[in-house]
Design a protein that fits this description.
alpha/beta, Elongation Factor Tu (Ef-tu), domain 3, 2 domains, NADP
């Protein structure tokens, strides 16, 4: 079998997979269809483009499963975390980046690597020989998607994903809005003032919800059916669940004090987060939407401080697809139907049924290392189950119920219990610290084992 590793898709997962395998000494060919073939969500041809948010979420590696995943990726010399650190923006306790320079740095790092070459153009069929990783993400092209469906003999699952709008900072009324992270979270003043807050009274909130519910929404194509992923619901879908759902979700007013009116607590607050290093763009946090463009401008300008807002990008919604991985992939992320044939085909990233930038990149990291080890003749087990990466891969390749499989973020609910610790909310802090301590130990041991094999 050819010793090259072919990776289809230059998103976060494909980029990380290429980086990991190339650093292990394997020759990598990265296949990318953009910009020759465009997608609904992508704006550039860069590798590692972030199409929805610019945040990798919490960076707390002791009390948060996402932050723990950050730690593991850094420990494994991950490209995505390296470039995120280089282009980090203030975001309280979160890891947010200046998205365009971030993607440009990812692209340049891959192009400069001596073991990586790039071939542009669409891959439309599953290969019949060689080592491959399919990391085409939730926006897998129609032709390749049809080939995957024909191979698996199973219906591919789908969900709808949404994008939040981006506002020009200069168009925001700072006589109304103010800068503050919730609960002043962050170690520096810049971090403690990482979010821009727009306060609402009860009357303003009621009027906003009414307009949101009445606004014209995007209609799906005939026969296009899918569910929503709960972690990325459009705001109007949340609002349909109850009048106060948004006020207890992305518009919650807790942990914030309005310096323009400190005596009166806002009834609701809309938060915006810096989207670039210059501070000229802000995205509306949690405001994914399926409203039509005209309706978006009318409804969002009802938000105090955004009455004269100009939008660099409006929100949108698109259909994402993913595999029923518990039935289709083994614990090495390989397509079971191709085991023992002339082709070793792995899947990585969101197409496997993980949700989120961090989770996608982590699955790319894991797939890249597993594929490289296979090519080099090394015996490498998948990441240990008690690590964040291992808990996630265990869930999607066997731990989840196949009949009800849906996209999954990393979370401590995927972790095996630590003996002797209390359950419930009161024991949560100690329990989470025990999870993260255990995970770091077993993950580092896993990395050390690989280092020993390479030497």
């Amino acid at each position: 079998m050819d010793k090259k590793l072919h990776i289809v898709g230059g998103g976060l997962a494909g980029s990380e997979a290429a980086w990991q395998a190339a650093n292990m000494g394997v020759e990598v060919v990265l296949h990318e269809m953009r910009p020759e073939v465009e997608t609904f969500a992508h704006q550039t041809g860069s590798f590692g483009e972030m199409v929805c948010s610019n945040s990798f979420r919490s960076d707390d590696h002791e009390q948060n499963a996402v932050g723990l995943l950050h730690w593991e990726m850094r420990a494994a010399n991950g490209l995505i975390m390296q470039m995120a650190a280089k282009h980090r923006l203030p975001a309280g306790g979160a890891l947010a980046v200046d998205r365009d320079p971030f993607a440009e740095s990812v692209t340049q790092a891959l192009l400069d690597h001596p073991n990586i070459s790039v071939e542009y153009g669409e891959v439309t069929e599953l290969p019949t020989e060689g080592h491959w990783i399919i990391a085409t993400g939730p926006l897998t092209s129609a032709k390749l998607g049809a080939a995957i469906q024909a191979e698996t003999g199973a219906e591919r699952l789908a969900f709808f994903d949404a994008i939040a709008p981006i506002v020009y900072a200069e168009s925001i009324n700072m006589d109304v809005a103010w800068m503050q992270s919730r609960y002043d979270k962050g170690e520096t003043e810049e971090e403690q003032k990482a979010y821009l807050n727009c306060p609402m009274t009860k009357d303003q909130y009621d009027a906003f919800i009414a307009a949101l519910m009445a606004a014209e929404k995007t209609e799906f194509h005939d026969g296009e059916t899918a569910t929503y992923f709960d972690g990325c619901l459009p705001i109007e879908v949340m609002a349909e669940r109850g009048h106060d759902t948004l006020r207890f979700g992305p518009m919650k007013p807790v942990g914030l004090t309005n310096p323009h009116d400190p005596e009166n607590k806002p009834y609701a607050v809309v938060q915006l987060r810096r989207d670039n290093a210059l501070g000229t763009l802000f995205n509306i946090v949690g405001f994914q939407t399926k409203m039509k463009y005209g309706a978006q401008t009318e409804v969002f300008k009802m938000i105090p401080a955004l009455e004269d807002a100009s939008f660099a990008r409006l929100g949108g919604i698109h259909r994402n697809t993913f595999l029923n991985s518990p039935t289709l992939l083994d614990d090495q992320m390989r397509l079971k139907s191709r085991l023992g044939t002339g082709a070793s085909i792995r899947f990585a990233g969101q197409v496997t049924g993980v949700e989120g930038y961090v989770e996608s990149a982590a699955m790319g990291l894991l797939a890249g290392r597993l594929a490289a080890a296979e090519i080099l003749g090394q015996d490498l087990e998948t990441a240990p189950q008690d690590s964040a990466m291992g808990a996630l891969i265990h869930h999607i390749t066997g731990g989840a119920e196949a009949k009800t499989f849906q996209p999954m973020n990393v979370n401590f609910g995927l972790f095996r219990p630590v003996e002797g610790l209390k359950g419930g909310r009161r024991g949560r802090k100690d329990r989470y610290k025990a999870y993260t301590d255990r995970a770091k130990q077993v993950f580092q041991e896993w990395l050390d084992t690989q280092a020993t094999q390479e030497n």
